[in-house]
Design brief:
The chain is built from 8 helices and 14 strands. With 330 residues, it is of the alpha/beta class. It has 2 domains: 184 residues, 3-Layer(aba) Sandwich (Rossmann fold), CATH 3.40.50; 129 residues, Dihydroxyacetone kinase, domain 2 (Hypothetical Protein Tm841, Chain: A,domain 3, 2-Layer Sandwich).
Amino acid sequence: MKKIINEPEDYVDEMLQGIYAAHPDMVTYAADDLRCYCNAVKKNGKVAIITGGGTGHLPLFLGYVGEGLIDGCGVGGVFQSPSAEQIYNISKEVEAGAGVLYLYGNYTGDIMNFDMAAEMLEMDDIKSISLVGADDVLSNSNPAARRGVAGIYFMYKAAGAKADQMGTLEEVAAAAKKAGDNVRTVGFALTPCIVPEVGHSNFMLNENEMAFGMGIHGEPGIWNGPIKTADGLAMESVDEILKDMPLHDGDEVAVLINGLGATSIEELYILNNSVRKQLETKGIRVYRSWTGEFATSMEMMGASISICKVDEELKSYFDYPVNTPFICQK
């Protein structure tokens, strides 16, 4: 294992200490718990949006806490859920009089702990609504059972914009749901990653072998085989997405090309170009795109492609300015 760390068991907390030290004007923590990560600025009367999940996916989840996006984040161990108590403490810290939207990935541990936190809030007479991102089309044929991966970024954008415009809790939830209903993701890995406290790879791939459809925790994909070209990956990924979310000549989409941690930005832009060519051959227009790291898996090499069908409402949310320690869009 080659990592720039001290003790493996201190990996999460020392990472958080570094973020707080670098951005004290933007982020803080609640209840004397470094893992109760919060926006340093509270806007009274605004719906509070709270997310959370395991460490190892930066900037997912805590990288989206900031102006125009999320208000708080529960930080779990590497690939582990945050606790219900942490989520509750964050909620109490950032709630600003308009209720709480819980917005997180579709994983069993996260669902259980966010549901428990919601019950605790209910006892405090604080209203909450919970939504999950479930955009990974190859993880399950049942949309409700799919994993939430990088496509949740579009849900954050929609919810964050509507909340910053002082929408009601129901309106903010509806904006997030609309984005979630219209986004699909396909991912693929070229190498495994190493969890610091484990010290070895979480799965194996042979040289010149890749896994198509693999999840961000190393969940199995739909095939392992020889590494394909960027054009080949774009063609198969777009075809899988369009089988699940049919698009037609003249439709517009937003595209997110996401690196999994060890893929160069040059390769991601090559993939972006390949995806655009595939969409253009079908008469589908790209309204705007993002290329970079949005939901990583430690140092895994690979990428994911998220496509979100847009209308004028979603365009306005996706164009809305945001500012976090990790993302700035003016």
